[in-house]
């Protein structure tokens, strides 16, 4: 079934309220958030018997609607039975949300973690309005970076002598996605040229900028725009039917599944005075998301829509508008499909597990890094976690209490397709080692282990392929000796400038020893066996050694994670031996060049998103 998630209404008001025209902002820069809101005066939260709670256009908010019974709390709803009285209000205008929050019209903020970070200087300076992040709703699965044909992986975003130009909405949710993508390749916004556009979608959105301006190399888009540019998640644009020739998904939150975290936060002063209400709000949401997930998954599996699910999707359509969700089965259901609810274990993992590299503290640090480095804030003003008793909340919500695992085995994200490794690679990096080395110490490789674990956490829907390589020199030497001895090869020229000719079937053709695929194929025929040394056996030994290296690195990373209580899904770490098949230097001339082939690659590789389970997002 086609899926068209709709995050496109979120924070479009950033552009409306900018005091500078788009072209006046330098590439890679952003206006201070305080310039968007103007001067604000902190006011007490108004107490009118009904609490205003903003929502945004996203699937995670469907559980809030369900818990509340609609925009106004109904007596038979989860929140109504808990004694809460809420009025859900549109919050896609995030700047207005912040104004209302500081001005006391609501104690709540609803956005992504990075959106809170962008507003951190405005909301975090005064202790009364310092945000307490009380709930993580979900991780996004419907946002993408689309690139032109020349950009195959995130590593390609950095090009000597020419900056890659990337279109992204000013102040929107994709700023965080772009920040994470650049960080995964160890780049910054100084390594690319960020071209900010006013809107998330439409005529002034990033997709249209990409479509009409050939100087734009990539763009950050939502799923409907991604499909319009490429034809689909795993497709490449042909130029027909509005697609852009060669356009493809460079990275997606389908794979980068822990990049965009949706949260609720409340004012610190209100939290201290109303903690029981906060507990009821969080418990009600936890109960509602269990119900919503069951309804969503039941329809996805049976393709038969229950009356309760139809009622929920109709409510979403009514609240968000038919222009946003034209159909229930495709658009409204698709909105929920791209929402990765985290549930109770996810709350515990996000807020309490110190080893969660996608948890509260790392995400806050990254949000403040983005805010200060990209010009939204002049200083670092953080948030507080809620400090809730999750066992108590489980009882209030009527859900099973279960602590999330830290090191997970046997719950994989799916196998990558080995034949498509190059096409499916999102980003890669390499470590080198000595001849015959199979042990990897933390002292020497700790930084690489940290990077691999961080990548595994952020790219929760991808495989981390640990690919061992061996140097081909010894195999090539034995191939040449065997070939000359058996008369299969003829050599001309002098040392350092040899030329080789292959004699086969009465014909002779020049053989290029640097063409490794051809060398591997010839060795596998067995034609060079029978001489003193066996190139076939040596090639197999090199393959075994490369796999042993990959497995040793995986074990070292697992031990490193356990010793530091770092969360990791070990099934994401998939060791592979490449042997001599993919050398950096195919025909080394000295030991220094040979050592460049003795390496282990870490590749973040796309896997089939249908293989994902909600449990993959719980830690």
UniProtKB/TrEMBL annotation:
InterPro entries: OmpA-like_sf. This is SsuA/THI5-like domain-containing protein. The keyword Kinase does not apply. Residues 1-24 form the signal peptide. Keywords: Signal. It comes from Botrimarina colliarenosi.
